[in-house]
Design goal:
The complex is a heterodimer of chains A (348) and B (248). Chain A has 348 residues and is α/β, with parallel strands linked by helices. Chain A has 13 helices and twelve strands. Chain A is globular.
């Protein structure tokens, strides 16, 4: 585990940075493109999943990266931390990890005769929670509560987490021995679940060639922005408009997962909210200050698939959260071409 | 698409499997009913050794044998035979019912699979209408070109751009290519304009203007209307070239 930096003060609750000023849509698009270009120097050929990860960061969400070992999960987190100019901490989730190892704890200072709070790795701008399903539910819960509330309480004292604060958690979908799979309620806390997949042969060769050319292991990336810049981007996303018809489309998609024949539990209202928030970030990255239905379609699978649990009798079939979302997308009606006239009775 | 190409064989195989299982069920039920109705004597035939009847009567003393009552052991033997036959009949019937139920379960499974395959097929192949009436679409688009331009030049720029874009849907529907409900307007119209080989840059620009007009709330000025008009005229020009060039 990355040792916590004692010089980094834990923010007391309420001490938040000033609200940032939103950027112009074109400036936001340009900045996000430069961020992705820089990260892609390290994580080769994965523009689409990288775009989704950045969209989640801009939407102030957290990402679960579920993929096989060696596909760049850790590298992605480290690269985003470098390029975004955020404090980076990595917590390796093991079966013996305790909540206090994550949140921090009070240590007795003999010189002063008082207890000092020593912050844990969760006090970072970007936390890599590596193999989050290898730790027992008690520690998982501590992390997920911190993710949700953006603060931790230790010995009755509440400490605000840095702003921006983002968790990139990884999980290996193949190994089950000695793991504690995240329950549905906790999976719901992640805005997106993303998989990178194997690179193409050309991209894989590119990875090898770049490593040989730079003659050292680590990749050093240029910092494109900093915490204040990221806050400005997040503020820009907050300005993006979601038309009521698009918001209703998000709700209809989430609701359709609940009545699907293959589903035991569908997406919660947090799912429809996640759709709208991620679609906003996606729109901002394309230089728009409005969301179109295609933005929602583009992010629907990573936002909804992990919130859908398939019926147990279908576990041995090809039914999955992703297949349910794909089916729902091919069925649910999209917003109409013309704006619907407002019903005067409802307008009143 | 390869998926679409391979899909039709799956339901056919499922139908064949369903029919085969159904026939098997009927056959098994007929055998079971016949066996239960006929009883073991009819069912089990052959030239083997005749069944030996074992007398369960106790060996009595000579005195008992000489009292003249020799019919009793024979009656006892007949009763035992009927009882054993009933038990075998019940066992055969039970077996038949179990086999029948098993076959029904298999049939149910096959039907469920058939339903699943059909559902899956429907999901993968959203029955799109064939997009081959290019000539009809182009003809209707060009015949309606003036009315579409009129829509673009009247009203506020926002409404004009949206109405102009919507007109493509109306034209396509008239040509027998309606928009599917799950398709976004932009997806459908882009598909349509791609079909008629309209210039991709012009189409992308008009699509961008439509989305901005429909979903944004910032000011949309006359420059947007002018840009849309330029692009629309370019699209119509392409269509006329397509029609006059004999490429249809």
């Amino acid at each position: 585990m990355t040792p916590p930096d004692p010089s980094r003060p834990a923010h007391p609750a309420g001490a938040r940075p000033e609200p940032a000023t939103p950027l112009a849509p074109a400036a936001a698009a340009d900045l996000t493109a430069r961020i992705l270009d820089e990260v892609e120097k390290a994580v080769v050929g994965k523009r689409q999943p990288l775009t989704l990860v950045l969209a989640a960061v801009l939407a102030k969400g957290h990402v679960l990266i579920e993929d096989l070992p060696g596909l760049g999960k850790t590298l992605t987190a480290r690269s985003f931390a470098q390029v975004l100019g955020l404090d980076f901490a990595r917590a390796q989730f093991t079966p013996d990890l305790l909540p206090a190892d994550l949140t921090g704890s009070f240590l007795y200072d003999q010189r002063r005769g008082a207890f000092d709070f020593r912050p844990g790795p969760v006090f970072a701008g970007l936390l890599l929670a590596d193999e989050v399903n290898r730790t027992p539910p008690k520690t998982q819960s501590a992390l997920l509560e911190a993710m949700q509330e953006r603060q931790v309480t230790v010995e009755g004292q509440t400490f605000a987490l840095p702003d921006p604060f983002c968790v990139l958690a990884t999980a290996n979908p193949v190994e089950y021995e000695g793991t504690y799979p995240l329950p549905e309620a906790q999976l719901d806390r992640f805005l997106l679940r993303v998989a990178f997949g194997y690179p193409s042969a050309e991209h894989e060769h590119d990875v090898v060639a770049r490593r040989l050319a730079r003659r050292r292991e680590e990749t050093v990336l240029d910092q494109v922005t900093d915490a204040a810049g990221l806050r400005a981007l997040q503020a820009t996303v907050e300005e993006v408009r979601v038309d009521p018809s698009v918001a209703r489309y998000c709700v209809a998609l989430a609701a359709a997962t609940r009545s699907h024949g293959h589903v035991q539990t569908g997406a919660s209202p947090r799912g429809s909210l996640g759709l709208a928030l991620t679609a906003r970030a996606f729109a901002a990255m394309r230089g728009r200050d409005y969301v179109v239905p295609e933005d929602v379609k583009a992010v629907a699978t990573p936002v909804l698939a992990h919130r859908v649990s398939v019926k147990p009798e279908l576990w041995m079939t090809d039914a999955s959260g992703a297949s349910v979302v794909a089916e729902v997308l091919s069925r649910v009606a999209t917003p109409t071409t013309l704006e619907q006239p407002v019903d005067p009775a409802r307008a009143r | 698409m390869t998926e679409g190409g391979g899909a039709p064989t799956e339901p056919r195989a499922a139908i064949l499997a369903t029919v085969a299982v159904g026939l098997l069920v009927v056959l098994v039920l007929l055998v079971a009913v016949w066996a239960a109705a006929a009883g073991p004597d009819e069912t089990l035939r052959g030239t083997g050794t005749p069944p030996e009847r074992i007398s369960l009567a106790p060996q009595t003393t000579d005195a008992a044998a000489t009292d003249g009552n020799q019919e009793a052991p024979e009656e006892q033997s007949d009763t035992d035979g009927t009882w054993i036959g009933t038990v075998i009949g019940v066992l055969v019937l039970t077996l038949g019912v179990m086999v029948g139920l098993g076959a029904l379960w298999l049939l149910g499974g096959a039907l469920w699979r058939l339903r699943d395959v059909r559902l899956h097929r429907r999901r993968r192949e959203p029955e799109l209408p064939p997009l081959d009436p290019v000539e009809a679409v182009v003809g209707i688009m060009l015949a309606d070109a003036e009315a579409q331009e009129d829509l673009l030049t009247s009203g506020t720029p926002r409404n004009a751009v949206v109405q102009c874009w919507h007109r493509f849907e109306v034209q396509a529907a008239a040509a027998g290519v309606p928009r599917q409900p799950w398709e976004t307007s932009a997806e459908f119209t882009l598909r349509l304009l791609e079909l008629v080989e309209a210039d991709a840059t012009s189409v992308a620009r008009l699509s961008e203007l439509y989305r901005e007009a429909r979903f944004s709330e910032h000011e949309l000025g006359e420059d947007a209307r002018a840009a849309a008009l330029d692009v629309l005229r370019a699209i119509h020009r392409d269509l006329r070239t397509l029609l006059s060039g004999g490429r249809l």
